[in-house]
Design goal:
Chain lengths: 359, 292
């Protein structure tokens, strides 16, 4: 990696090079050096070095073979970041000269050219795309991402790494190729590997039914929720937990191999290959709750009160309850409005409209 | 051939600190350079057990559970979620505290996985408990005129849970370092609530055998022992209870020397980590592996 790219090219030429539009080989009359723009043959070593020194294809070849991580998934991800499979080297280098930004969940990765090292990667929250660097906390160690990923902007714990609640205000201004993949892994674990498997047609999806069938211990009860009576309950789970507003992974699992859910899987860049531990933990609770029989209760509500109950459920479900302004008494989920409803409708035991809950 | 380490821990949906010891021990081991890769993985967090191996480049992986006891998690959940299809608890041939390792293949990645017993039942865990006592008292020579209580969850879901606690309590008692050593439990006799009844020594170090600090170690046990009325008020170290000075250590898993136990597990399974073990024991103040 400390080698000069031109020296490396000369040393590798006898094996032949054919990469990203660059072709180098050795024949009886000397070296051939070919790019989409020109082809020269019959070169001696000095001439080859001269050609190579002035051509960006050489630095590009060197970066992808001697600097970038060579594991399939990491390599493919880094290539994807700069559109390497779609754009020629000169076009790409023009774009990289100004910094080429791509989004991965709520991450923005900006690739730039960086001398002998080939590439430099800037990583930050997409919402900080235009934030001046001196207003962001700079990090060097990709493992710092583990701490950043733990809490949201309000300081609340994020149990789901791919929830769209990544905190803002930080920046990794100058990561190398290996470290940017590590940082992405710390923010969104295994997303690069699963994305790559999917591109290769090898994503191992575990659908809902097989995932719950495998549960044991306190989660074994979830198996009983699949009663062979359809999959509407799983539609509700997916709508509750897996919507893009809740998780940035694109849900690829369905009820089972033959039965697709009716709910959209989302538009995320990286796939979700099986119900996650949060879904299973929530499903355990729903399995218990959904085992109850429906009862008929009689309440009297004004039309506005009925709408207010709906507004409160919407506000909580959309995570909006805390954002409703204190004096916005026109919103049904406003705190004063809700306290008024409770004062009017609850009895001393907290029963809605004085109606007791039947067991 | 490159060797990788994967640490398997429980993690939490609710407690942000649950993963902290795992990250910290992984970082310690990473810094030794003994493994080409060190990866954390969790049951309740990400990277999940299910998807940890695919993020590891090496073909050979040492998988060490950061769990206290042998049983449900180490024998069923971890092997199943890591897709170690050839796994059978018989491969450890354990009496509940004597697991070693088993070499199996991961079904989804084809990697060779040396699946090790949990840190909690390794002999060197006794050293970590002693080290924890040194840390909490600030006295490297702690032992004389002191009692030591090793506290565990108990048998609620797993009979081996109590075995691990008793195993280390017995081993530490045999060292003759402390005047008294007892194994106490949260949900069975002898109960930690009555800690002072079990000791004659005025000073008692209490070390909970838990991996991470959380509800049990920071709320339940301190209140049960009478260190405080309400955990939010905190407690002194030591705190006086019924005429005894109780030196409450918090979860043993937060002790830096835990990284050594992870390495010992991997070494037992064939990993070339002897230099790393010396380094970690040196850094964490434990001296050489021969004991102090």
């Amino acid at each position: 990696m400390d080698e000069d790219p031109v020296d490396a090219l000369v040393a590798t030429a006898p094996d032949g090079i054919d990469f990203d539009g660059l072709r180098v080989e050795v024949g009886e009359d000397g070296y051939t050096f070919e790019t989409p723009a020109e082809a020269t043959s019959g070169l001696d070593e000095d001439a080859l070095q001269e050609k190579a020194a002035e051509d960006p294809h050489v630095g590009n070849w060197y970066f992808w073979h001697a600097v970038a991580p060579q594991t399939d998934a990491r390599w493919a991800f880094l290539r994807w970041l700069e559109g390497a499979e779609e754009h020629t080297v000169p076009d790409r280098y023009d774009a990289l000269a100004d910094g080429l930004a791509t989004e991965w969940g709520q991450l923005q990765v900006t690739v730039s050219l960086d001398g002998d090292r080939g590439r430099s990667y800037d990583l930050r929250h997409v919402a900080d795309a235009a934030t001046p660097a001196d207003e962001l906390t700079a990090h060097e160690d990709p493992l710092d991402a583990r701490d950043i990923a733990k809490h949201d902007d309000d300081g609340d714990y994020r149990p789901l790494k791919t929830a769209p609640s990544l905190q803002t205000g930080w920046q990794f201004p100058d990561l190398d190729a290996a470290d940017v993949v590590e940082a992405v892994h710390a923010f969104y674990p295994a997303t690069v590997q699963n994305w790559h498997r999917e591109r290769e047609g090898e994503l191992d999806v575990d659908h809902w039914h097989e995932t719950v069938e495998r549960q044991t211990g306190i989660y074994g009860v979830v198996r009983t929720w699949d009663r062979g009576e359809g999959y509407e309950h799983v539609n509700w789970v997916a709508e509750a937990c897996c919507d893009d507003s809740q998780c940035l992974k694109r849900r690829e699992w369905e009820y089972d191999e033959e039965t697709e859910l009716d709910v959209d899987g989302g538009d995320g860049e990286f796939p979700c290959r099986e119900p996650c531990s949060l879904v299973i933990a929530a499903a355990r609770q729903w399995t218990k709750l959904e085992g109850e029989q429906a009862q008929t209760y009689e309440f009297e509500l004004t039309p506005s009160e009925k709408e207010q109950v709906e507004a409160i459920i919407d506000a909580v479900a959309d995570g909006r309850a805390g954002d409703i302004r204190e004096a916005d008494v026109y919103d049904g989920a406003n705190r004063y409005r809700t306290r008024f409803l409770r004062a009017k409708l609850f009895d001393d035991d907290g029963n809605l409209a004085g109606v007791e809950t039947d067991d | 051939m490159e060797q990788a380490l994967v640490i398997a821990a429980h993690g939490s949906h609710l407690n942000a600190e649950s993963s902290t010891p795992t990250f910290s021990h992984a970082d310690t081991i990473r810094a030794t350079g003994a493994f080409s890769e060190v990866r954390e993985s969790f049951w309740k967090e990400e990277p999940h057990f299910r998807e940890a191996l695919r993020t590891v480049d090496a073909d050979e992986v040492y998988l060490v559970p950061l769990f206290i006891s042998e049983g449900y998690f180490t024998e069923q959940v971890i092997p199943r979620e890591f897709r170690l299809d050839d796994w059978d608890p018989e491969l450890w041939d354990s009496d509940g505290t004597s697991a070693d390792f088993a070499t199996v293949t991961a079904d989804d990645t084809g990697q060779t996985v040396h699946y090790c017993g949990p840190v909690g039942t390794h002999d060197s865990m006794s050293d970590v408990i002693v080290q924890r006592a040194k840390s909490v008292t600030g006295d490297p020579g702690v032992g004389e005129d002191f009692g030591l209580a090793v506290v565990g969850h108990g048998t609620e879901r797993n009979e081996n849970s109590a075995k691990a606690i008793e195993y280390h309590a017995d081993r530490i008692a045999e060292m003759g370092r402390f005047d008294e050593v007892k194994a106490l439990f949260m949900d069975e006799d002898p109960e930690v609530d009555d800690v002072t009844d079990f000791f004659e020594s005025e000073d008692v170090v209490v070390v909970p055998l838990f991996i991470a600090d959380g509800y049990h170690t920071q709320e339940d046990i301190p209140e049960d022992m009478g260190l405080c009325e309400d955990y939010r008020d905190g407690w002194g170290v030591p705190e006086t209870v019924d005429g005894h000075d109780i030196w409450y250590a918090g979860a043993v898993g937060t002790e830096p020397l835990m990284a050594d136990v992870v390495l010992e597990r991997a070494a037992e399974a064939g990993a070339d980590v002897s230099a790393a073990i010396e380094q970690v024991r040196g850094e964490s103040g434990a001296g050489s592996a021969a004991g102090d």
